[in-house]
């Protein structure tokens, strides 16, 4: 089983890297891009025998306490079979 964690800045937090990426894309002719928010992506393998519920609970804890800064970032966890 795999777990994926997506971490991104909260909507209320300025994203200068995203703005730079948007500007670069627009400069390359991709004028349809009106906004970019950058983030982090983690993919982890869960040990054999771990239940989906236990894996999801542990990944939520890891995301909240280790991978994301709750003051300025949101996160989302996906469990894949």
Write a concise synopsis of the structure shown.
This protein is α+β, with helices and mostly antiparallel strands. The protein has 2 helices and 3 strands, in the order βαβαβ.
General description of the model:
- It is a single chain.
- With 81 residues, this protein is of the alpha+beta class.
- The chain contains two helices and three strands; from the N terminus they run βαβαβ.
- It has a three-stranded antiparallel sheet with strand order 2-1-3, covered by helices on one side.
- It starts with a strand and ends with a strand.
- 9% of the residues are buried.
> What's the story with the biggest beta sheet?
3 strands, antiparallel
H/E topology pattern? EHEHE
Q: Approximately what portion of the residues adopt beta-strand conformation?
A: 25-35%
The amount of helix comes to 25-40%
Strand segment tally: 3
Distance between the termini: 5 Å
* pLDDT < 50 runs, ≥5 residues: none
The pLDDT mean sits at: 97
Rg on CA atoms, Å: 16 Å
Structural class: alpha+beta
Number of helices: 2
Shape: elongated
Q: Order of strands across the biggest sheet?
A: 2-1-3
